[in-house]
Design brief:
The structure is a homodimer.
Chain A (H helix, E strand, L loop, with lengths): L3 E8 L9 H17 L4 E3 L17 H5 L12 H10 L2 E12 L2 E11 L5 E6 L19 H4 L9 E6 L1 E9 L6 H8 L5 E6 L15 H16 L2 E6 L2 E3 L2 E3 L4 E3 L5 E4 L6 E8 L3 H5 L5 H4 L7 H4 L8
Parallel strand pairs in A: 1-2, 2-3, 7-8, 8-9
Antiparallel strand pairs in A: 1-14, 3-4, 4-5, 6-7, 9-12, 10-11, 12-13
Chain lengths: 314, 314
Amino acid sequence: MTRIVTVAAAQLGPIARKDTRAQVVERMLALMRQAKSHGCDLVVFPELALTTFFPRWYFERQEEIDAFFEREMPGPETQRLFDAARSLELGFYLGYAELANEGGRTRRFNTSILVDKTGRIVGKYRKIHLPGHAEHEPWRRFQHLEKRYFEVGDLGFPAFRASFGAEGIFGMAICNDRRWSETYRILGLQAVEVILIGYNTPVHNPPAPEHDALSHFHNELVMQAGAYQNGTWVVGVAKAGNEEGVEQIGNSIVVAPSGEIVAACTTTGDELAIARCDLDLCASYKNTTFNFARHREPAQYRMIVERKGAIPPD
Amino acid sequence: MTRIVTVAAAQLGPIARKDTRAQVVERMLALMRQAKSHGCDLVVFPELALTTFFPRWYFERQEEIDAFFEREMPGPETQRLFDAARSLELGFYLGYAELANEGGRTRRFNTSILVDKTGRIVGKYRKIHLPGHAEHEPWRRFQHLEKRYFEVGDLGFPAFRASFGAEGIFGMAICNDRRWSETYRILGLQAVEVILIGYNTPVHNPPAPEHDALSHFHNELVMQAGAYQNGTWVVGVAKAGNEEGVEQIGNSIVVAPSGEIVAACTTTGDELAIARCDLDLCASYKNTTFNFARHREPAQYRMIVERKGAIPPD
């Protein structure tokens, strides 16, 4: 038996601050049409895919910040993506900045949605591992103010049954989530078969420039390990290239449950990498080395939830 | 500032069932003398280093099994290793089968110890992630009866302050533990700077022979990810080669906190791989990308301890 989901990692090149959502959506529609011509079932776009990566700037005025957020999904400019999903019979993952009114207050999240081939939203995730900082740090060549502009996601790491060519169990994560083994494990504990991850990752990390030369290596390492250790496909998709003077890594990849990279983008522009993902390959790992019910020892893991920061021994 | 611990991954080639402990200890002493001649501070031996990997056989008689266990440490044959530690001023990590009388009953663990340059045991660990199976499975080309012959370790994943050339924080794991992200994270939450891991890993995995060609890749992947995601050195050391008809991977490696492999064995025999490990390199990761106190979200991780096996969504 095989359950094939043909996935397109739809990398986006840079988006300038002056670019309109309509212009970006046009580029995304072009990628969706290309993906359809290659027989794809599911297109994966990056994190915050509709605008430039705005947390690189410190804004004082809330309305400047909110201009990068979506108040509804679909909204006036994004409706065309949902229409295309329906007409092309092609699902998509989309990352965007979400402005919600919940419990009588305005809330802001770094969000992704999973949309099926009928244009229906079948899953939603709000980013949990917000990187960067909350205060203006003028010494940096650019800011990374996600801790200022977003709340920590409040939906957990949910997994969803959905059908894209074949029925499977899908999970989502966003950017920095992919560096944390907990992300993959919590999805793995829900028997996830495909994890979709959009990201915006600068090559240069101002607090640790000594890591810059390893940015591709680290990007691949964490997704390959997360895939193997949970017997799941992982699709990682970048917003790439020189965006407003900041170089961002591309390196969009599709990783098999073996941990092997089976498709990859090679540019830092708009580009598709396509893989036929057989969801039944997951079982080979989930039923043997990573048969959690046989081999995990959760009674020994309590420190993971009882401690946030590291505490050295006496 | 630098805190250099010069580590030797002391890989062992096969040990036959007929080999005596005295013969094995002689090989280990030779590796210790070599390590000393290269200015090493710490020698890391494999899992169950004193005998052949006996869980590959099904034994009915308990005395046959117990013949592979140590009743005291140091014991008559292992005392020479402790004497060499003291005379050479060279620490070591040793894996062995431990038979203990505790609470009025006999207990058996897959154990490792950390011995300092004065020959004193400064840390002990009992393997938590026992792989394999508990019942005889005659269809296998060889058995992997760790779940039959050992109890799950009861010491947690402790980290220890110790001094080998420089003072640092050391943790231990054994073989299959290295495939589980929880192992590294729990040690990472104790600010570990070096994780020592001995292993015996057959190339052939009877329940999943389709993974055999990837055994080196998976071995490296899990240790590289564990190192990077916790900003720690990892030293992985094999018992290697064709042991009683079973091919075992070598691939002993030293991994930096960057995730990069900085030293490796290339044979499947007795061999040293040496690395000067600067423990201060850990801080670059622990204080930035993997600053746990800033970036972890333990309230979101409860499923890791509340659930053992995977449960698919409705």
